[in-house]
Specification:
single chain, alpha/beta, FAD/NAD(P)-binding domain, Enolase-like, domain 1, five-stranded antiparallel β-sheet, 13 helices, 24% strand
Length: 459
């Protein structure tokens, strides 16, 4: 019985740790399986925290270069890549050390190994040790995707891991992709001084956001000097002794771009290939994600999945909510499914893109009767004095009641501003309710009052 556990988690990242911690509230024997080096998960080691550390430094540099606009005399401003890299390492070490201590604490049995399923309630470690459990959670995250573009994988381009580890300034980089990771790190590279060409298949970057939001970010990228090409079709990748050469179709003709470096940012795939899920009776969706019900259970009711490996939103706080939900359900506790109608999603470009609640496209798909109003940053006092004129705020409310259903913010510090409306959405507040708040002047936050007033008048 020493190899039998109440709950086994595969993966020690955000979803896995949250689930293990939650299961341990009622279970004595909880195991975590993680063979990654180092321990800590994607968000802390190779995702959210390192990328946002670098992005913020690039924003400070960008503002310093705008000194003359603000009436300041800053003769020179440039990146010091070795120091930037060391600051990132030091910052991340604080977070990683804490997570590693928690995972290795006596509350859990930690196995530093990879594992595969060998039966419906059994996994086998790399050394042949078999472990069984009453319930399992798969939280193995995601890996870099390699679409079938001729020459792509063979040319061994950078991935996001490589960009986040840079300790020197790249002369020129071609970025393939237009998703969140592609856009955040493309702008980072441009702002630290690299020559950047970004190639995106769709007509807009950030296709998970609204076309209106994407257009604002596209304008800002081009204003920064990025060569942004959308509506393309990649044909092949070649690597010579000195450059990467990318051939693609764009605007009805074949084009070629060359750069010293190539960054594959064409998405990520669920990390399931080595798990032998078929032996456990766990089914996958067409997307490759593990199929789950509203309580994160897979087709095998003893096995749950959470985080990037399950979807539908590859966001850290969603992974944590899913992990906690799975652990509570697996240990016999009542718990409500994750409410995705209150979702908050953010892109850390400049301007930032953030939304809360139900996106407008989804409101239309569901046939919900709603009213909407927006207001631009370039007509708002605080954003004008900050030279933060790109973007807008938008509010969607239920027609007749005025209850806030969704909100979108594209602009300076949208990641912070969106939470004012997220609270209102979660508490089912109306536009009139939110207008009772003391919105201080002059602040960026008070920009919400303009669309809220319009929405209140329409309902």
């Amino acid at each position: 019985m020493s190899n039998h556990f109440d709950f086994i988690v595969l993966g020690g990242g955000s979803a896995g740790y949250a689930a293990a911690r939650t299961a341990r509230e009622t279970c004595e024997r909880v195991a975590i399986i993680d063979g990654g080096e180092p321990l800590g998960g994607l968000c802390i080691l190779r995702g959210c925290m390192p990328s946002k550390t670098l992005i913020y430094s690039a924003e400070v540099l960008h503002l310093a270069k705008m000194a003359d606009t603000f009436g300041l005399n800053i003769p020179t401003a440039e990146v010091d890549m070795p120091r930037l890299h060391q600051r990132k390492l030091a910052t991340i070490d604080d977070f990683a050390s804490y997570r590693q201590e928690q995972l290795a604490s006596e509350r859990f049995s930690l196995f530093r190994s990879r594992a595969r399923f060998t039966a419906e309630k059994e996994i086998t470690l790399e050394d042949g040790t078999a472990l069984t459990a009453d319930a399992f959670l798969i939280a193995t995250g995601s890996t870099v995707a390699w679409p079938p573009v001729p020459g792509l994988k063979e040319s061994q381009p950078w991935t996001s891991d490589d960009v986040l580890e840079l300790d020197h300034l790249p002369e020129s980089v071609i970025v393939l992709g237009g998703g969140v990771v592609a856009c955040e790190l493309s702008q980072f590279l441009r702002r630290i001084g690299s020559r950047v060409t970004q190639i995106q298949r769709s007509e807009h970057i950030l296709k998970e956001t609204s076309p209106e939001a994407a257009t604002v970010v596209e304008h800002a990228f081009r204003e920064d000097g990025t060569e942004l090409l959308t509506g393309t079709n990649l044909k092949c990748i070649e690597k010579t002794d000195t450059v990467y050469r990318v051939t693609f179709d764009h605007a009805g003709e074949e084009k070629v771009r060359e750069a010293k470096h190539l960054f594959n940012a064409l998405g990520r795939s669920p990390n399931t290939a080595s798990l032998d899920l078929d032996k456990a009776g766990v089914e996958l969706k067409k997307s490759g994600h593990i199929a789950t019900n509203s309580h994160q259970q897979t087709s095998n009711p003893a096995i749950y999945a959470a985080g990037d490996v399950a979807g539908p939103h590859e966001i850290v706080h969603v992974a944590i909510l899913q992990g906690e939900l799975a652990a509570r359900h697996a240990t016999g506790r009542d718990v409500a499914p994750v409410d995705y109608d209150g979702l908050v999603s953010i892109v850390f470009t400049d301007p930032q893109v953030a939304y809360a609640g139900i996106p407008e496209a989804t409101l239309k798909e569901r046939g919900i009767d709603y009213v909407t109003a927006d207001y631009p940053f370039d007509d708002h006092g605080k954003s004008i004095l900050m030279e933060a004129k790109h973007g807008y705020v938008k509010v969607h409310a239920e027609k007749g009641t005025g209850r806030i259903l969704g909100a979108e913010c594209v602009g300076k510090d949208a990641s912070e501003l969106i939470h004012s409306l997220a609270v209102g959405i979660t508490l089912k507040a109306t536009a009139s309710d939110l207008l009772k708040v003391h919105w201080y002047h002059p602040t960026l936050s008070e920009i919400w009052t303009y669309p809220l007033e319009d929405v209140a008048d329409m309902t």
